[in-house]
Amino acid sequence: MKKRLFLFFVAALILAPACAWAQEGGPAASNDVIDLIWFTLAGSIIALVFAVVLIVRTMKKSRGPKEMREISDAVHTGAMAYIKQQYKVVSIFFAVLFVVLGFIAWVVPELSGGQRLLSRYVPVAFLTGGFFSALSGFIGMKVATKANCRTAFAASRSLNSGLRVAFNSGTVMGMVVVGLGLLDLSLWWILLRYVFLPLGWGIGSAAEIPPIMITFGMGASSAALFARLGGGIYTKAADVGADLVGKVEAGIPEDDPRNPATIADNVGDNVGDVAGMGADLYESYVGSVIATMALGSAAAGLMGLGEKALLFIQLPAFVAFIGVIASIIGTFLVRSKEDATQKTLLRALRTGTYSSTALIAVASFFAISFLFPGQIGLWGSVMTGLIAGVIIAFFTEYFTSDTYKPTKNLAKATTTGPATLIIGGLSLGMISTAVPVVTVVLGTLGAFYFAGGDTHVVTGLYGIGLAAVGMLSTLGITLATDAYGPVADNAGGIAEMTHQPPEVRRRTDALDSLGNTTAATGKGFAIGSAALTALALIAEYGQKVADFTKIDFSNVVANILSPNVLIGLMLGVVLPFVFAAMAMGAVGRAAQAMVDEVRRQFKAYPGILLGTDKPDYASCVKISTMGAQREMILPSLMAVTAPIVVGFLFGPFTVLALLAGATAAGFVLAIMMANSGGAWDNAKKYIEAGNLGGKGSPAHKAAVVGDTVGDPFKDTSGPCLNILIKLMSMVSIVFVGTCIAVNDQFVGLLRGIFGM
Amino acid sequence: MKKRLFLFFVAALILAPACAWAQEGGPAASNDVIDLIWFTLAGSIIALVFAVVLIVRTMKKSRGPKEMREISDAVHTGAMAYIKQQYKVVSIFFAVLFVVLGFIAWVVPELSGGQRLLSRYVPVAFLTGGFFSALSGFIGMKVATKANCRTAFAASRSLNSGLRVAFNSGTVMGMVVVGLGLLDLSLWWILLRYVFLPLGWGIGSAAEIPPIMITFGMGASSAALFARLGGGIYTKAADVGADLVGKVEAGIPEDDPRNPATIADNVGDNVGDVAGMGADLYESYVGSVIATMALGSAAAGLMGLGEKALLFIQLPAFVAFIGVIASIIGTFLVRSKEDATQKTLLRALRTGTYSSTALIAVASFFAISFLFPGQIGLWGSVMTGLIAGVIIAFFTEYFTSDTYKPTKNLAKATTTGPATLIIGGLSLGMISTAVPVVTVVLGTLGAFYFAGGDTHVVTGLYGIGLAAVGMLSTLGITLATDAYGPVADNAGGIAEMTHQPPEVRRRTDALDSLGNTTAATGKGFAIGSAALTALALIAEYGQKVADFTKIDFSNVVANILSPNVLIGLMLGVVLPFVFAAMAMGAVGRAAQAMVDEVRRQFKAYPGILLGTDKPDYASCVKISTMGAQREMILPSLMAVTAPIVVGFLFGPFTVLALLAGATAAGFVLAIMMANSGGAWDNAKKYIEAGNLGGKGSPAHKAAVVGDTVGDPFKDTSGPCLNILIKLMSMVSIVFVGTCIAVNDQFVGLLRGIFGM
Q1: CA of B559 to nearest chain A CA: how many angstroms apart?
Q2: Residue A193 CA, distance from chain mean position
Q3: What are the chain A neighbours of B424 within 8 Å (beta carbons)?
Q4: How many A/B residue pairs have CB atoms within 8 Å?
Q5: What pTM value is reported for the model?
Q6: 3-state secondary structure of B254
Q7: Burial label, B228 (beta-carbon count in 10 A; 0-12, 13-18, 19+)
Q8: From CA A183, how far away is CA A51, in angstroms rounded?
Q9: Which of A178, A32, A34, A187 lies closest to A125 in space, CA to CA?
Q10: How far apart are CA B656 and CA B638, in angstroms?
Q11: Sign of dihedral through CA atoms B87, B89, B90, B92?
Q12: pLDDT tens-place string over residues A180-205
């Protein structure tokens, strides 16, 4: 059965573009080339159907004995309570921005006699982006919280069964993210092109559609920033709070049911690592595709491609479609034997990922050579991204996995105490930024020139976008291998709390540890693609400046030797630092509140520690939830308002420099934080595996300090920076017209005052 | 006597420019305006004479009892041994670069038939810059190592006497740095203008002189980077090594004579904090003046200033002259009563600094309005720098002093262990970058527009340079308050080792703690001026690109939307991170070697700990010296070669972006590292003063971890970043012609290969 399905997909993958092409009689024969969006829509439906099949299959598995079910239910309830509160706060933000965007899009043109700073579809597009981003996280989390006890129970029978349940639930997340991403994209396209365009409602041609869609990217990024930041604060506050009072002060083991914060801790894995990551990667995926489509519009216009313009615009979405199909095929190749070791499990996951990558390379080669004869350079751009992704992922693993030298050496630093470990980890994180930056630099150049940047700059920039799309095209499967980690982690917690036999815990540990390795790979893709997408968005911002000031794109010049540009650069570089500091400070404050609550419960009900009283899990969940909600607002507002305020005061060229500076610094800081954090985590695991004195040794104590420092690095500040740089770019793009208008007024005012 | 001297200086300060002006019959009356360099030369001689007077006076003080003299001698010998070794390594580097520069300046024109990529004076100028920079550090260190026992002995009589000796020795450093800086500058000017120009030896006009002088800036910066980095590695390796084995493992107190590394530790204060800082600030001072003079040449040419061009070029040197006189006057105002408290001592130092600042403001107002009637905006640029310096210095103190909230709150984080302290300190450092960046951003804009940047861009950029000169004009006195700290620190060590009565140690502690506060101010100036100077150097680089490609400056466009520029930006941003990582890694490795040596001595000679055997101080000094020398080479080479290699491969516009990116990121990272490190240090001191449980409490243990992590931050990586960004800019400027020539060849080759 599965084999037939597999062959069917392969056939569809290779034949579909060929059929489309043949049907149209070749690319040059018709004026009305096929709308590739139908493939994208089909891809999204296939992904969603596949997700539903997997959900149904997962739900059929047994939830295990009563104790397992109880814990799973408590985690599920806590996660849902969190997400409800989160949506309350986020919907206020969305409502406010909806009103602001609505005012600019609908009221300003009336007041100013037709001056149109925003398309009228922008406010609604913004809402849908946020809605789908949140929905991806929600579904992923719902499934993950249902799958944790099932994984634990399956692992009590065999390692392979455990892997299947956890991996299936991760695959659901992967499929939901890509499926919903492409669905939102296709639906807007279809609506705008086939309904509003014929009606003549504010759209003159299909080329105007992608710039409007950038707004739903902004919606998706806003929702993702809240999800990542709120989830990141929640999970680390609960984690640190649980550890500091439970492990250190009361001396009870991790995941002990007597610890009031233990459920909050497990909830944290789900709201941070699952819901947060889902929304995050939804945003990355959609962002890369629409940014590239928008540049495609501009490039097609400049190149005078005529009837082929549409193909040019839709190529990114089509590459995404190929990626979806290849990812689904890849998931079928992830299988392991009953007696699998850690190594064979890793090989199983890798087989899936690499097969998908190879499939995409082959299929996109054929697709591009059919659709764009003579422009095979575009395939070069896609491949540049795909290869850069693999390189970055490898080096992320190299720097953070304890099978390689850097983390092994770092672990040795624990023997001279926590200080040398911290210095070593920071130094490791900083030096590890070199390879990804050089890779992205070469990838950027490669993608630019492959796509013909030496003749048309915009086409080259479009190539950079294609590289981002290429890098993320395997998302369906890389996210699956990534998102299964927290499920395995939770399953381990459940196994511990329900006192399963040691071999069960050993199996869940094996799954968890595998998850850490694949998560590193996933982070590499997220960071690398963020840099490339941000570069594409910066280019699109330049394009919008050209549109609004009615000059040619080649005349949009942000010269580094101009002080307005230099200051933008400095402001841009400092923003990620300030944002990261705010996020880390937030974790500290929220953790303190948790510490106080756990101490209060232990003091008020001494029976808790004796096992006679039941701790109040819900109040800890609530405190973490409230802390996260309160703390996520200020940094998020800074991200959204900074480019707007800078634009008002200093104009669009300063904003351009700000975006470039923030992208460069955010990229470097994100890698540093992810890799320092990952290396500290794995150095601790390396010692816990019995090296350098093992658990309880002074080395281990030092390693715990490193791990705690690394937590907000890798799970709160670091991942948010990827979203931050794209969100700022999108906000700038959406508000570009308003900024130029306000800045003109402001400069006029200044000149009036100083008589210049 | 002193009062008369004081009045004399005030009169000279105010009358000199007026006389000069009157003598010439007003600015417009003569074709041959006075050469302001004579003032600069006079200022340099006054500063150096003053330094000699202070040295003689200091040497007359008693060296105290035999034990004090012995320790002082051991530290002196160790420091000299270090500096000798350092000069050996550095002279190899200088010899190699001399040959390279000589080849380009003298041989290439012969080979290529006259193509002149470098002035023929460049190789020798490079050497003199390095020589004077090293000499500043050497003299300062020599005096400091002679003054430490004298301070300790003076403090055994009274606090005020101790302050006077230490402060005098700091003042020597201040005067030597500014004196030698202006001397090198004046001598080259006089040589080139009055000897080689009339002879027609490779110089066509006085306007060509400043760009040649940039090379001695490069020499000064290279020597400074080695001094800072080598000294920083040495001092932290010795410090960490002494603490880890001595305090932690053997359980003997700090500065205990039984610890073999204790002399190396005290040597470290001198080679790092005195010699390193001296070379560093020499480089900052000279760099800011010559970068601005070079821009002055360009601006004067563009503005068609005619006979006033010379005044325009020399204004920065003249402002420096005013600063020297004002600083000398300021040092006379630093006095305290016998019963002085910490607070009154601080007020005494502040009186000196603020009086100098006010004097400079007034004197430069008169000077500029006499020299440039109608262009008082130039004074605005100078003032912008002065004020920005004061603001940055205040906020540096705000974030790092334990009299303010941030460090107090940080100290509280120690109660929940080292991890929360580290997270809090990193977060504090990151958020503290916002104010200096915004200050520099506003200062940049202010200086630019005050100097008339809206009509002539180059003039505006010249204004940015003037702001840097203004900020550093008080260096004579700020460096005095800064450099006295390590002397007080050493005196404290000597008091401890020679078992002085507690009130002596209390006095030296008061002096030391005061030094920490003023050092924070000094760091603020160094960092702020580095950013402004680097911006001026970037502008000068742009100017050189214009010269070499024979286009107008306004056509030198590094557009952020071009991928060549974007990649330069990313590479630039990552460089400071990689450099900082290398420096931190170097400290770790050098410290490990020290730990091994101390352990070896304790094991081989058990009598050391019993007090019966004398430890081998010299071998520890040697190990630290060798470690520092070995480790400083790679990061320094990276700094020098990175812009050259990038220039060869990608051309001058990528280099321009690289410099801008490195300046922005280096600036932010330097502030973060300085402030995190300073706050951790003071949080520890705050606890040691008896708060939160005091010495020996768990909070104190956590604070020690923070302090150790902060050491390489604030004393190794952080301060080097200031030098790094300027050195890279100067290297780029010196090699610009070569880079353009090589890049043309390389691009031609690529085009040949790919048939483009």
Answers
A1: 5
A2: 29
A3: 585, 588
A4: 244
A5: 0.93
A6: coil
A7: buried
A8: 14
A9: A187
A10: 17
A11: positive
A12: 999 999 999 999 888 888 888 878 78
